[in-house]
Design a protein that fits this description.
The structure holds two protein chains of two kinds. In chain A, a hairpin with a 6-residue loop joins strand 4 and strand 5. Chain A has a single domain, classed as Immunoglobulins (Immunoglobulin-like, Sandwich). In chain A, 0% of the residues lie in helices and 51% in strands. In chain A, strands 2, 4, 5, 6, 9, 10 and 11 form a seven-stranded mixed sheet that branches. Chain B has one domain: Immunoglobulin-like, CATH 2.60.40. Helices cover 0% and strands 52% of the residues of chain B. In chain B, the strands form two sheets. In chain B, strands 2, 4, 5, 9, 10 and 11 form a six-stranded mixed sheet that branches. A five-stranded antiparallel sheet of chain B has the order 1-3-8-7-6, with no helix packed on it. The chains are: A mainly beta, B mainly beta.
Chain lengths: 114, 111
């Protein structure tokens, strides 16, 4: 049973052409995260939503934006993708509150920028 | 500065061998998680440890959280080719803070 779903699994875009990646969850978790992972590296947190509260990491470029219209869905918008933005983008969820929350990851969307 | 240091970075072993992967820090973590990630997929949670000195077993995998909650290890007994992947440790320095990741250990088990 899929718990964190990411679509599409593979996305090809052109340099400078806006692209949106989507994530949905069936866990009803209150936190959703977006990570960027480049080859052979650990995931790097871009931002997260705690309910509707948006939390941006200090070093996340302005080129990356996010939307969370409801509990189940979260979107990553890349306004003007550069070649350096080609990576795997991972969505994760957790339930904050009550202690040691565990994060559950989706399968990722691999973005290719031409 | 890398808060969580994983070692070794790469490991290639024969099927049937045992191995240990380490995750070390000078900081205390409130909890620590181990994930396994296969190429082209997202990380899959293996275990969460929260208590100093805790040992958890998952079939052939044994996870240990250090007494001081600064380090953790993953031991695999009789490794199989299906164990191949990137093993990531990640932890929370405090409750309700973002997860801190190690750089990962890339394991290759050769049949």
């Amino acid at each position: 049973d899929a718990m964190v779903i990411q679509n599409p699994r593979y996305q090809v875009t052109q340099f400078g052409k806006p692209v949106t990646l989507s994530c949905s969850q069936t866990l009803n978790h209150n936190v959703m995260y977006w990570y960027q992972q480049k080859s052979s590296q650990a995931p790097k947190l871009l931002f997260h939503y705690y309910d509707k509260d948006f939390n941006n990491e200090a070093d996340t470029p302005d080129n990356f934006q996010s939307r969370r219209p409801n509990t189940s869905f979260c979107f990553l918008d890349i306004r003007s993708p550069g070649l350096g933005d080609a990576a795997m983008y991972l969505c994760a969820t957790s339930q904050k509150g009550g202690g040691k929350e565990t994060q559950y990851f989706g399968p990722g969307t691999r973005l290719l920028v031409l | 500065t890398q808060l969580l240091e994983q070692s070794p970075q790469f490991l290639s072993i024969q099927e049937g061998e045992n191995l240990t992967v380490y995750c070390n820090s000078s900081s205390v973590f409130s909890s620590l998680q181990w994930y396994r990630q296969e190429p082209g997929e997202g990380p899959v949670l293996l275990v969460t440890v929260v208590t100093g000195g805790e040992v958890k077993k998952l079939k052939r995998l044994t996870f240990q959280f250090g007494d001081a909650r600064k380090d953790s290890s993953l031991h695999i007994t009789a490794a199989q080719p299906g164990d191949t992947g990137l093993y990531l440790c990640a932890g929370h320095l405090k409750e309700n803070t973002p997860l801190v990741f190690g750089k990962g250990t890339r394991l290759s088990v050769i049949a």
